[in-house]
Amino acid sequence: MADAARPTTARSGPVRSAWADAVHYRTIDLVTVAMLGVAIGVVFWGWNQLYAVVSTASVFAFPPSIGLISGPWLLGGVVGGLVVRKAGAAFGTEVIAAMVALVLGNQWGMSSILSGVVQGIGAEIVFALLLWRRWGVVAAALAGAVSALCAVAYEWNLYWADWGTGWKLVYAAFFALSGALVAGVGGWLLVRALAPTGALDAFAAGREHHDRLARTSG
């Protein structure tokens, strides 16, 4: 019986190790979540202003198509997760960003905080399922897409209650696509662009950049 139990313990070891790493926060991790949240919150506020204009353009005469330009609101969860790589970092960054955008002023009021909560949960779910060990472009795109789908589930009856099921499903598909490309791939590219500046040297993303440089130079 003891011998039979050993393989199970061995298999569960990496899971426990991943969880231990994911919940061990340094001071710089907490500070970075806050700073990223504030910076992306300013981006959210700016996008809110532009969205109010762009969403009325004739190209969006088919209402569900506005999902195609909704991806920027998911950047907080994706970027926060990719940089800090800790449990709760994606959620925290997205919620702080939503709070900052609310303080600066937006057209949705307090409901934007709830949007930030569900969007952050969506990104967090993906990173958790990957055991906080996969941070490539595919993981980022999945985080953006699932974040969008969580937002859609919240928005359907709050903002789009008068839409038929067909329109809601099309909106969900468009939002998920925008989340995957704009927040997911875009957020991954943003982190890759920040790494050479030295701003991420205290994080795995920065160390990975230096490792890539060492391999190419060698």
UniProtKB/TrEMBL annotation:
Chain ranges passing through the membrane: 27-47, 53-75, 87-104, 110-130, 137-157, 169-191
Keywords for the protein's UniProt record, in alphabetical order: Membrane, Transmembrane, Transmembrane helix
InterPro entries in alphabetical order: ABC_thiamin-permease_prd
Taxonomic superkingdom: Bacteria
Coiled coil spans: none
Keyword Coiled coil: no
Keyword Transmembrane helix: yes
Official protein name in the record: ECF transporter S component
Organism (species): Mumia xiangluensis
